[in-house]
Amino acid sequence: MMRRLAAGGLLSLIVLLAACQGQSSLSDRGADGLRVVATTTVIADLARNVGGTGVTVVSLLPAGADPHTFEPSPQDSKTLARAQVLLVNGQGLEEWLEPLIAGSGTKVKPVVVSEGLQVRRGSHDQHHRTAGAVPAQNESENDPHFWFDVKNVMHYVNGIRDALAQADPANSATYRQNAEQYLRQLAELDRYIVEQVETVPQARRKLVTSHDTLGYFADRYGFEIIGTIIPGVSAEAQPSAQQIGQLLQVIREEQVPAIFAESTVNPRLAEQLARDAGVRVITDLYTDSLNEPGKPADTYLKMMRHNVDQIVAGLK
Ligand SMILES: [Zn+2]
Q1: What is the distance in A from the centroid of ligand 1 to the CA of 235?
Q2: What separation in Å is there between the alpha carbon of 165 and the centre of ligand 1?
Q3: Residues 6 or more apart from 21 whose CB is under 8 A from it?
Q4: pLDDT score for 236
Q5: What are the residues whose beta carbons fall under 8 Å from the beta carbon of 153, sequence distance 6 or more?
Q6: Ligand 1 geometric centre to CA of 232 (Å)
Q7: Ligand 1 center to residue 225 CA distance, Å?
Q8: 176-209: b (≥16 Cβ within 10 Å) or e
Q9: Cα(201) to centroid of ligand 1, in Å?
Q10: Measured in angstroms, how far is the CA atom of residue 150 from the centroid of ligand 1?
């Protein structure tokens, strides 16, 4: 650039400046790199691993927030308006997103990272059947908690890689390399989970959680979902006294070793239920959100290892 300036003089300088300005407004890749917005802390973490140092990733949901009941702020609208890539979980997890997109005026098309995955139904049907209760209200509810099967997260990562490459083709090779490296770590995590689960006797691989988050985990790694305290795949509903009584009965009948309360849900009911059933309660399972940076479950890989260690220790 310096050589061309010296040779061409003032006219070249003007032409060059104009060209540079034109270029920067076209690609709009600022000093912070590609601006990626993810809805959840889990997806944001995956995007950071794929994007590397060349991208800025923001999660709309802060650590510890419940995605089902989240209420976006005006700041979230501004964040979204500046996004060049928007990564979304989908299948009803982010019911607050559509109005936020409309209000922000963003033209960016959401990339639904779960698209193409096999969707499971909420497993509360099973609990109600076991408990002999009335059929569940939302029987056909789709379960958005795909990330508890590591294979599904590999699918997320491939989608994120493609979305970043499309928005920023100049760095597509970097995104591909980063994704490959991260996929290897995911494969390792998957093996770790399988190995750890094998140490739990088959008859004790039974799960009761705050809400219906671990269905994909159960399907992939061989657990039975006995019931959930909050009925359904959303954390919004409140259980009735009758439902709690039925769940208590099932926990006793099935000899469930422990109850797992999730970090995004108030543990009060889980603790009470565990007391009544005379079983252990584990209160730091991270399901719908990562932990704050610097804490034990602040990345997807650490969150899953932490959860598996908690589950295995709780059920043994
Ligand atoms: Zn959830």
Answers
A1: 6
A2: 29
A3: none
A4: 75
A5: 46, 146, 147, 186, 300
A6: 9
A7: 15
A8: eebbeebbeebeebbebbeebbeebeeeebbbbb
A9: 27
A10: 17
Which three-class secondary structure state does DSSP give residue 237? coil
Ligand 1 center to 143 CA (angstroms): 8
Expressed in angstroms and rounded, the spacing between residue 93 Cα and the centre of ligand 1 is 7
Tokens of 254: 């099935």
Under 8 Å between Cβ of 197 and 129: no
Using CB atoms within 10 Å of the CB of residue 253, give its burial: 0 to 12 exposed, 13 to 18 middle, 19+ buried: exposed
- 268-282 residue pLDDT tens: 999 999 999 999 999
| Distance of CA 139 from the midpoint of ligand 1 (Å) | 16
- Summarised one tens digit per residue, pLDDT across range 140-162 is 589 999 999 999 999 999 999 99
Do the Cβ atoms of 219 and 244 come closer than 8 Å? no
Q: Where are the alpha helices (DSSP H) in the chain?
A: 2-27, 41-51, 74-81, 97-104, 124-131, 150-167, 172-197, 215-221, 241-253, 268-277, 300-315
Distance from the alpha carbon of residue 69 to the mean position of ligand 1, in angstroms: 10
Q: Give the distance (Å) from ligand 1 centre to CA of residue 171.
A: 34
pLDDT of res. 272: 94
Which range has the worst mean pLDDT, 26-40, 73-87, 221-235? 26-40
